[in-house]
Amino acid sequence: MKDASCISCDVAVIGAGMAGMAAALFAAQRGLRCVQIGNGGSLLFASGLLDLLGVYPVAERRLWRSPYEALALLAREQAEHPMARLAVASIRSAFESFVTALASAGLRYAPLGEFNRKVLTSIGTVKTTFGVPRSMIAGAAALEARPPCLLVDFRGLREFSARQIVATLGERWPGLRHQRIEFPGAESAPELYAAHLARALESRLMRERTINLVKPLLGDARAVGFPAVLGLARAGEVHAAFEEALGMPVFEIPTMPTSVPGLRLLGALETAVSKLGVRRRHQASVRALVFSAGAGPATLELDGAQGGERVVARAVVLATGRFTGRGLTAYRGQVRESILGLPVHQPDSRETWHQRDFLDPSGHAINRAGLEIDSAWRPLDAAGRPAWPRLFAAGSILAHQDWMRAKCGSGLAIATAWGAVEQVARQLRRVGAG
Ligand SMILES: Cc1cc2nc3c(=O)[nH]c(=O)nc-3n(C[C@H](O)[C@H](O)[C@H](O)COP(=O)(O)OP(=O)(O)OC[C@H]3O[C@@H](n4cnc5c(N)ncnc54)[C@H](O)[C@@H]3O)c2cc1C
Description:
about 425 residues, alpha/beta, FAD/NAD(P)-binding domain, Rossmann fold, 2 domains, 7-stranded mixed β-sheet, 4-stranded parallel β-sheet, 11 helices, 15 strands, about 30% helix, binds flavin-adenine dinucleotide
């Protein structure tokens, strides 16, 4: 008799952060029957900007215009870095597939091109990144040319201050001005939330009222920047309406987390993977993972799913992140992988986890802790052998990288998901043929 609470698939992806979403997407694009477990909460912190590789070497804080040249140097000098394992052509394909899938789900990015771009942050610093949402790209152009430019914010919106940005950049961008306006209909609200404003601006009436408040403030401005609140699921339409009505380039600047661009990213990725038939268990987590011998499947025991569902999978991708994602757990003396207790590459003792100086440019050893993998992206057991022939790992759980300092968060997630899924497909063909 068929077990009603058991679903079978080719590949189970554990994790729904950037790496888990990318892995589920790439697996489904290859025609693999995929189940994805985990909630996408970590994506809500994403700025929407897709970093590929901005800084290398980290200790020198060297910024790169071409992420591909930086990747080539990384591959020569730091072979153990997870992104050094991939051909540049694969990384290009991974990014192209990822943004094409986002576009098909209604979230458009500017064409990727060859170079990193510089964009403004919510505190007026400049961030080097690679993939820029269509709604932010005019900001990159404005930052480069520095024409007269107006930044608008809304009274009560805590996650963003146009005044702060102008104060930080003012001397280097003399034509940059700011204006604070009341959000229509919220004049007496003490606090505003970015997601509420974004939803409200999907209404044509609210858009028109907001645009009418901004028009008289334009002066000599040749571009206008707003906090990233111009729509949620219909962000493309809202952004286009602002550009048309104001008659000039309009750009968004990411706010502090949790961010509207993160919500958009999560929504678009959910749509993209669901369209491709990925079965998502977004309220569940994997409690246990049991492997059968030889070519048999793995069984995943889920918590939080109705009826204590089980998933039986021919292959598994572990994309559970680091400490905040809960993929790694720090115990008193050591760090372990959280589901299987896999060994983790880490400093010899807790005393050497961190540098004395918190801001040490070379970063902290603990940030490079993670899973060691073989050439097929399979995590290793204590004996240095693949823990299971068809268990793969992707994303920030991997060792020998410090994505935050290297400005390669999404790059690491997307590229390693591509690499791991390529190996999943290869291994499953082999098993199928065997
Ligand atoms: C504040 C912040 C800002 C960022 N800004 C940028 C940026 O501007 N540009 C950029 O490129 N990147 C940025 N990133 C990085 C990027 O978005 C990703 O967080 C990063 O690449 C790591 O992704 P990940 O999928 O490996 O791990 P995580 O995002 O940590 O995801 C891990 C996932 O695994 C799930 N999980 C863990 N254990 C289990 C289990 N037992 N069962 C089921 N699921 C489980 C978690 O619920 C989560 O969904 C930012 C990240 C943060 C936190």
